[in-house]
Structure formats: C-alpha cells, structure tokens
Design goal:
595 residues, 6 helices
C-alpha cells in the first residue's frame, strides 16, 4: 500500500488522527465544490476529485478510505451536472424575453459562493503540510525516504596491503637468545642440563625474511543512540589474538583468514566536557608507539575530559583509566580439589595535558602521565614437589599472558629436589617479569609552518620506570634472574645489564595526515628503550620486531595517490643496547585506504 507507515509502533493512533483530518477537509471541499457546481459548469473531472486523487497518491489518505471518498465525489459531481442542466432548461422556458424577471433571482433560489482553484489548492497544501509536520514530529517513515534510525549509524573502516622484509645482522648471537614468550605460552622448559632434552625455543637471529606479504582490514559500526550516548563495534584481521597487531600474514596454503573482535564499547557524555567509555576501546591516552602500539586497544573503563580556558587559545584535557590486564584461572590447578585464589593484573593510568594555540601557525601540546601496572611482576612460588606428582606451582599465574622480548625475566618455580636423585630432578620452569613498573610518561609536540606553507611537527617522548630497582629485582627472584647479562657468559650480579629509561624524538615535514591527492609527508626519528623502562608486551611490533632493549632510527614517507588512499614506505633499523648482539632492519611498503 502507498501510505505513511510508522516503524515505531504508533501507526494506528497517528494514522487515524491524520485520516480524520484529511477526511474532514475533503468533505468540506466536496460540499463546497458540489454546491458551486449547481450554478457553474462542471469540468469533466472536478477539482475535488483531483484533490482526493492527490491525497491518495501522496500517501496522506489510506487507499481504501480515499477510494470511497473518490467514488462519492464522482457521484455527487454527476448529480451536480444533471441539476445544472435541469436549472438551465427551466430558466430558458420561463424567460423567453431578454431582460425579464427570469434574469433576476426569484424567492427561494439558493446563492452559493464560487470557490476558486487557487483557494482549493491552498486548502490542499495546508492539509498536506499539517500531515507531513505530524509525520516528522512522530518519526514516521514516508515512502522512498530513509528511516530516521539509519541517520544515526556510521560505518567506517580501513584496508592496508603491506610488503615487508626483515634483515638480520651477520654478527648476531644465535646461541643465547631464547624465545621466552613461546615457553610461557606452551609447556615449561626444563632448565636442568642433566635432564633437559635440548635447546628451548630460539629466536631467529640470522636468517633474512624477504617479501612477506601481509594485509590488515578493519570494519566498524558506530551508533549515536542519543545526543549523549553512543556505542561501537569493530572487527579486525590478525594472524593471532596478540594485542599489538591486527596484521594478517598471507599465504598459509591460501587458507581463510581469522576475524577478531577488535572493539566493543559504550560511551556517554554527562556534560559537554566529560566522556566516559566502557568495554574494549581505542587508546584513550596521548602516547607514542614506543609505549603503546597504534593497534593496541584497551579493556575496562576510561573517563576523558576536555575543557577550553579563557579565550579558547588554551585548553586542558586528561584521562583516567582502569584497565584489567589479565585474570588468573578460577579452577587452577585443574587436578586438585584445593584451588588457588583468584588474581587480577591491572593497569591504572592518569594523564593531564594542555593544548596551546600560540598564533595562526604555531601550536604546542604537552602531557604528563602516570601508569601503575599492578600485580604483573613475577612471584617466586612456594616449594612445589613436581617429582611427587604435582603438575603446577602456585605462582604459575604470574607469568605474562603476552610478551615480546627485552624485559628482565626471573624463574617462577621453587621446585623441590627429589631426595633420591637431586642432581637429576627435572626443573621445568616458567618465566615472569623481574621488575615492577610504575611509569612517568612525558610527551611534547610542536606544530608550525616552514618554507612558506609546509607543515613541520616535532614530537618528543620520555619515559622513566620509577619502580626500577636492580637490588629489589634480585631479592624478589631469589637469584633466579637469567637474562640481560653482558656477553661474557658470566651470569652474576656484577655482569647484569639493564635500565629504566626510554626516549624518542621524531620530526615530520609535510601534511601530518595526507588525505587529499597530492598531499605528502616525510619523517625521521630515533628511539632508545632500555630493557626495563616499560613492559615489553604493548609497544610497536615493527621496531626491533617489538619489545625493549633496543635503540635505532626510523625513516618514512607517505604520498596520497587518491582521496583517503596513500602509498608509504618505512625503514626501521635497530640493535640491542645490552647483552648479546642482535640487530634487525625492517623495510615496509604499504598501500592504505580508508572509508
């Protein structure tokens, strides 16, 4: 049917009101037009009939009701035409002589005023205007019109095709760089050389990987529920469920690729300057990829404020975040009736910053942040007799759920020796973080114009782990620290090498975010990240292939070949700061587009 519909469930009362209004108007016009036709010649199709047809076609009248009115109007129009002919015949018979009384109205004649076409059109437009106003107020959907709820939905996404090559230094150590992340993600490794079957999982340190084709796809839907509440969901690719990359490696026998839940959040603005978001959402803090990867999302709750001050050249902003990082198993150990207590690892973050518009070409931004990582440090277990049949120790939960490389590690299990053969007791171990992490994070950015109208942006980031303490690390580990020693092979306290500082500087010339064809930028930067300056799990996975204990430079360039479509290239050169030699160069060529 061709009439107004109401997708919100208010169709019956609302439509009845409109139909009553339309019917009343049509009947009034019908009576006036019918009477007027008693003294004037009626056209083949009266204006009333045309009006009713128009109301039916526009959807203002229900089709059934409109057709009934149309039939009635046509019948009465025909009656009016017949009556007109009878009156004309009687008048001609009674007044054979011009100028007689027949030319004057007799007693009993009815004088009906003529309603012009202009007036009838005006009445029709007013009725239609009232109906459409009511439809807009009550949120109806007219035929061929987009429903109102679709205007509150926004779709966004991006695609990236990357060719990546990795080049390893020829003098890299290939004997002492174990893949501790692989050990923690799988079975524990026996560190007793008398009983171990071979080497632990090892990192690749010398074999180049060229022309690795990779892709990233992200697709999100954002709904504006009201003026203050919104929600979003985003899906993304990824070779696995790690938190720092949504890049999918191609190949694999042309098998289908995985899709992961990348974001799912609800946000509310109780005031214009405050936003509260909960769920899984994008990074709410101002930071660089030295600390948090650009692909990293956060779970939990974050409150963000942004307030302009004075003449609006200066504004303050900040963020508070409560982020659960990991929950221990509620049923560990699985083969025991006595379960371990539940443990939770947290990130508590607080940041405050300011934006200052100095003039039309110069802007400054500065932030200071404090990140407290709670309960992520490794804990030495109580003595556990694995030789007697125990399958776990009570601090196995304290190993990281995800790690890259670089942090100082400690052995977690205090394994009791078998009295029958102490030297031949297997010692299967997991590894935990030796240091605590309480980070002070300072960020600064200056944006200006140079050489006419070229943009120049300078970024600087400094991080200090305020909880870094080597003596405390060795006490906590009970002497069980086993990495980040110098290359002499003597794992003693005197040969230990680490640090709690990290810094980064970067300069970008051109458009900071090219989106229009012909826009471009080039950038150069330097990073220095000591082993325990920050947790190695969450930063950029391209520089030094992720983690800490790395220093080096980056060069990149981007050119927009079309709207929201860019070609870019990056060269990242890095090597380890302490311990075994480990140099990695990474080249990335990319085609990016977004919608």
């Amino acid at each position: 049917m061709n009439y107004l519909s109401n997708p919100r469930g208010r169709s019956l009362p609302a439509r009845k009101s409109v139909q009553n209004l339309a019917i009343a108007s049509a009947v009034a016009l019908l009576m006036a037009t019918g009477a007027a036709h008693a003294q004037t010649a009626a056209p083949a199709e009266s204006a009333m009939v045309k009006l009713i047809r128009g109301l039916i076609q526009s959807g203002t009248l229900n089709k059934d009701v409109g057709e009934a009115l149309l039939a009635q109007a046509q019948t009465e129009a025909m009656a009016a035409q017949q009556a007109q002919r009878q009156v004309a015949a009687a008048t001609a018979a009674a007044a054979p002589v011009a100028g007689t009384a027949a030319m004057r109205p007799e007693a009993g004649d009815v004088r009906v005023p003529y309603i012009s076409q202009t007036v009838r059109d005006q009445i029709r437009d007013e009725v239609k205007g009232q109906v459409m106003a009511q439809a807009r107020t009550e949120g109806w959907a007219a035929p061929n019109e987009t429903p109102e709820w679709t205007k509150r939905i926004r779709i966004e996404g991006d695609m990236r095709l990357r060719n990546e090559s990795r080049y390893y230094g020829r003098y890299n150590d290939n004997l002492n760089l174990a893949d501790y992340a692989a050990i923690n993600a799988g079975s524990p490794y026996d560190v007793n050389t008398n009983t171990t079957a071979g080497l632990p999982p090892m990192l690749n340190t010398r074999q180049d990987r060229k022309n690795l084709w990779r892709v990233r796809a992200r697709f999100g839907v954002i709904a504006e529920i009201s003026d203050t509440t919104s929600a979003g969901v985003r899906l993304a690719t990824g070779s696995d469920d790690n938190p720092v990359s949504t890049t999918q490696t191609l190949g694999g026998g042309l098998n289908k690729k995985n899709i992961w839940l990348d974001q799912a959040w609800i946000s509310n603005r109780p005031t214009d300057w405050l936003k509260i978001t909960g769920g899984r959402f994008g990074n709410p803090f101002v930071s660089t990829d030295m600390l948090f990867s650009n692909d990293l999302n956060f779970d939990g709750v974050a409150a963000q404020f942004d307030k302009k001050l004075g003449n609006e050249a200066l504004s303050m902003f900040g963020t508070l975040g409560i982020i659960p990082l990991e929950y221990s198993s509620d049923s560990a150990p699985k083969n025991s009736a006595d379960k371990m207590r539940s443990e939770t690892k947290w990130l508590l973050g607080a940041q405050v910053g300011a934006n200052w518009k100095l003039d039309s070409t110069n802007r400054l931004r500065g932030t200071v942040a404090y990140y407290s990582f709670q309960n992520i440090t490794g804990k030495l277990s109580d003595p556990c007799a694995l030789y007697a049949g125990a399958t776990a120790c009570n601090t196995d939960w304290s190993r990281p759920a995800y790690m890259q490389k670089g942090n100082t590690l400690m052995l977690l299990r205090n394994i009791a020796l078998n009295p029958a053969g102490p030297a031949n007791t297997p010692l299967p171990q997991y590894m935990g973080l030796a240091s605590k992490f309480q980070l002070l994070d300072l960020n600064a950015r200056w944006e200006t114009k140079v050489l006419g109208d070229y943009g120049l942006r300078l970024d600087a980031n400094y991080i200090r782990n305020l909880a870094y303490d080597e003596d405390e690390m060795f006490r906590r580990a009970g002497g069980g620290i086993f990495n980040n020693y110098d290359s002499t092979g003597n794992n003693t306290r005197a040969n230990f090498q680490s640090g709690g500082n990290a810094y980064m500087v970067q300069a970008t010339l051109g458009k900071s975010n090219p989106v229009v064809r012909g826009e471009w930028n080039v950038s150069a930067g330097y990073k220095y990240i000591e082993p325990d300056a920050l947790p190695d799990a969450y930063n950029d996975s391209s520089f030094h292939l992720g983690g800490t204990n790395a220093r080096g430079y980056t060069l990149s360039g981007t050119y927009a070949v079309d709207k929201n479509t860019t070609l870019s290239g990056r060269w990242l050169s890095s090597k380890s700061i302490y311990s075994s030699p480990f140099a990695i160069d990474v080249m990335q060529l990319e085609l990016n587009t977004r919608f």
